[in-house]
């Protein structure tokens, strides 16, 4: 239920149940459909969202700031270049500092587990993991899931289980270092979907993620070397960029995969949606952008609305946006 979210932190997708996903999707739908801005502006009035980013970000950082402001809250922004971490201050002390000035902390850090450390340091505030190295990116996974169900024509009446049952999702690219696919695979493991991994052997999905999905016992998984072998029968293609910053020499993987309009027209179904967490480099050609199957810019837009929903839930004010009984009542079948 929505009331159980108040004051909590979100540092891993492992915290999220199927019922929780139903709630998040329902509140996000309500945010998008709200016609009265005053209802939104009341959600965070008098509250402050702090951002602490030690890695570059455009979409995550800006969408969280926009989400907070559209809910009536204030924002403060800190990054490693200008924070006291350059003087040797520990993450824990920086987090304690920001807790004095804010109600929520959005954190991105290069060290896996950093968000969990932050949440343990300041249990009095809600901490949201905006990416921890090669670990997880829970809010990105949530907006990716939201994009999938929305693109699959989710009408708000069917359960997520029904919408996703039997769907085939192909993940292509740097699956080893891409935290977005790690989190999304774990979320999708709650449903009866088929996950297809296409990557160079050195960039394949980590064993720990594969084991997590397998342990759930609902989703099936398979690994492939060539996207052309499997693209023809999938419902969604999720492309990731080569994470050059994560390893010493990325040159041998340059241009090893590329999705363009020709490939999609030749092999993909007319209904196959293409997602990408962005930024893209060379892995998706711009000639695909006008194609209605290209959902990555819609995906980017959904991110702000979903993060508005998360902040409202953690503030305990989602009821100002929607009828909690109606949203929470969409139980999985």
Structure commentary:
This protein is an alpha/beta fold and 333 residues long. The strands form 2 sheets. Strands 7-6-5-8-9 form a 5-stranded parallel sheet, covered by helices on one side. α6 packs across α8. The C terminus is likely disordered.
How do the helices and strands line up, and which of them pair or pack?
Layout: H1 18-33, H2 37-41, E1 48-53, H3 59-70, E2 74-79, H4 91-99, E3 104-109, H5 114-121, E4 126-132, H6 138-151, H7 160-164, E5 168-172, H8 179-188, E6 194-198, H9 207-216, E7 220-224, E8 236-239, H10 261-267, E9 273-275, H11 296-315, H12 324-328
Parallel strand pairs: 1-2, 1-3, 3-4, 5-6, 5-8, 6-7, 8-9
Helix pairs in contact: 1-11, 3-11, 4-5, 6-8, 6-11, 8-9
Largest pleated sheet: 5 strands, parallel
What pattern of helices and strands is seen along the backbone?
HHEHEHEHEHHEHEHEEHEHH
The average pLDDT is 91
Strand order of the largest sheet: 7-6-5-8-9
Given the structure, what is the number of helices? 12
Helix content: 25-40%
Can you count the beta strands?
9
Radius of gyration: 19 Å
Shape: globular
Q: Any low-confidence stretches, pLDDT <50, length ≥5?
A: 324-333
| Estimated share of beta-strand residues | 5-15%
Class by alpha and beta content: alpha/beta
Distance between the termini: 17 Å
